[in-house]
Amino acid sequence: MGVKEIITAISVLLLLFPSTVKPRAVGGAQPAGSAQSAGGAQGGAQGGAPGGGGGVTLDVVAQFGAKPDEKTDLSQPLLNAWKEACASPAPSKIVIPAGTFLLSRAVLEGPCKGPVDIQVQGTIKAPPDPSHFKDDIWVMFNHIEGFTMSGGGIFDGQGALAWSKNDCHKNKKCTLFPINIRFNFLTNAYIHDITTKDSKQFNVNVLGCKNITFEHFTVTNPEHSLNTDGIHIGRSDGVTILHSEIKTGDDCVSLGDGSKNVVVNGISCGPGHGISIGSLGKFQGEEPVAGIKIANCTITNTMNGVRIKSWPASYPGTASDMHFEDITMDNVSNPIIIDQQYCPWNQCDLKNPSRIKLSNISFKNIRGTAAGKEAVKLFCSAGFPCEGVELADIDLTYTGPDGPAISQCSNVSPKLSGKQNPPICAAPAATSPGGQAGPAKASPGGKASPGGQAGPSKASPGGKASPGATA
Fold it and tell me: Ranges of Low complexity compositional bias (predicted)?
């Protein structure tokens, strides 16, 4: 089993057995906006966060004995401060002041009696040796309502040694490395002006959250760091990522099953593998993906641009209402891609089509430069063709020796409007990113023929399903 499948399995366990401490009921909480309004999402998240004035301020150095000497473990002082803050009915603030701290591990549990704000002003470093960790947890926040974190500080995973030991592309029993920050089952959370860097694996994992916003959030990992997704989302409703910069060795943002009402707006992505929905269909009972809007982003020097991917021979499922608008591509290998034969390392059955039904998808005002000739690839399932696909005002150029740019399609008949460079679905179908593509037709205003309704999905992993280091 690859490292990302292990993450998925752990996510299943968290969903089935979330905690012996049950979170308090949340009355009337609304998702952080919708795919229609990033501003509404931001406002909703901030509305549930601790406000200014009053409350308790707890300094981990001055009051709990933490030392910014890169030797003394911050774990116990931080935990003690958390317990006091979490027990306070009044809004509480934990301050991690300037300086560099060593943190072996932190699991900060709710529910709390009042809102909690963590001000990270310093740099928090993980032990560099991955053998220090017994699982994939470094910093984890669980079952908290009304949480904020800010301060301009840094979570440094010190992952270089782990990257050199990552052999998950060839070893199904590979070593499990820790994720920098896990946000599990948070409601009304706002994380801003925080940096995560050099994670040993994913930088951020969002699971089971409702109304959570990231703003002015920075991810910095080198391009060669394997499996270091910037922000991965699963089984969460109302996730907003605004005005952030993500440089990593895998997807800048990845959305797993059960991702609903997600807004990604104003992101700078690259290097990395772009912004991806999926991969979907690897596990039985995955939840639907719906209400996704990716807009006003710049993607630079990445392996992919905006991508939807599902496995062949998959379990049934659906993904709908996914919209990509106003995106600039700069030297991107696959700027626009739907890949329903996603098959990294040829570890799947290409003879049977994906049973993930994709519908109501739009790509609008996407422009810039491609690093390869195939600028647009729409490879939909032969068993469940894509429906309601629209492309408008596409202008992607390629200047390589085998140019100009082309598009390739199968099992989709998109609606076209505005500029179409390259001409959409004009080239003969060829081998898809995961296998052999079927016939393609392009008819403005048309739709793909119905492939039947995907079956119901329940109880999903919520994690990422691609094994090892993948595209």
Answer: 27-39, 432-447
Superfamily of domain 251-429: Single-stranded right-handed beta-helix, Pectin lyase-like (2.160.20.10)
Catalytic residue among 143, 192, 232, 273: 273
Sign, CA dihedral 421-427-432-433, equals negative
Q: What is the pLDDT of residue 275?
A: 98
Domain boundaries, the chain: 54-163+177-199, 251-429
Q: Is the pTM of this model over 0.70?
A: yes
| Three-point CA angle 442, 447, 449, nearest 5° | 105
Whether 54-163+177-199 and 251-429 share one fold: the answer is yes
Q: pLDDT value at position 16?
A: 53
**Residue among 292, 308, 213, 214 at smallest CA distance from 259:** 292
CATH class of the region 54-163+177-199: mainly beta
Worst-scoring range by mean pLDDT, 213-217, 232-236, 299-303, 454-458? Answer: 454-458
Active site residue 169: no
Left (φ > 0), alpha (ψ -120 to 50) or beta: where does 55 sit?
A: left
